[in-house]
Amino acid sequence: MVERMEKQRFLDLITQAHQRWLSEIERIPRTEMTRAGYCGIWSVKDVVAHIGWHEQEMTDMVKTMRLEGSPLWLKPLDERNQTIYREFKDTTLAVVLAIEEMAYAEMLQQLEGLSEDALNDPAAFPGMPPEWMPWQVIAGNTYEHYTDHMQSK
User: Fold this and answer.
1) Can you give the residue ranges of every domain in the chain?
2) Residue 56 confidence (pLDDT)
3) Which of 44, 76, 77, 90 has the most neighbouring CB atoms within 10 Å?
4) Angle at CA 91, nearest 5°, toward 87 and 92?
């Protein structure tokens, strides 16, 4: 059986992992953040845009209290990631960093307003399969995701 997640522990996991991820990318000179190769062929900018997209999706899920989102979720992972990449490839580094910062802040605000019961109850999010836990969906798109994209895991 899946363990129940305490809300404060969950928020701590997200904020700590996000801070570690930010600390890692902030050590990279801005002039290097658009160079391919940080994560596979992606630059730091590409990864930041990718992370911000996922944070915004989690914000929208919590706001609507529904497991709905971008039609990109229906695409295979590689295709979804390529589409996100193309969506932001011509966006400047400064704008991508600002978008992610706003997405993270809004997501955290929405999560702070979410009840601990809802965090642990798939029925609180219509459309979510009963075997899924909301906190696990969010974790996969936040603190686990940040770690996935860190070079110094």
Assistant:
1) 35-148
2) 97
3) 44
4) 155
pLDDT, tens digit, for every residue of 56-104?
Answer: 999 999 999 999 889 999 999 999 999 999 999 999 999 999 999 999 9
Residues forming a β-bridge with 39: 42
* Cα–Cα distance measured from residue 20 to residue 13, given in angstroms and rounded to the nearest whole number: 11
Taking the C-alpha atoms of residue 59 and residue 79, their distance in angstroms, rounded to an integer, is: 22
With tokens 């798939």, the residue in question is 122
> 144-153 — which CB contacts under 8 Å span 24+ positions?
144/17, 145/51, 145/54, 146/17, 146/18, 146/20, 146/21, 146/51, 147/17, 147/20, 147/21, 149/21, 149/39, 149/47, 149/50, 149/51, 150/20, 150/21, 150/24, 151/24, 151/38, 151/39, 152/24
Mean pLDDT of 123-140: 95
Would you say 69 and 60 are in contact if contact means Cβ atoms under 8 Å apart?
yes
Quote the tokens at residue 25.
């990318």
**pLDDT at residue 151, rounded to an integer:** 74
Query: Which of 87, 85, 108 is closest to 38 using CA atoms?
Result: 85
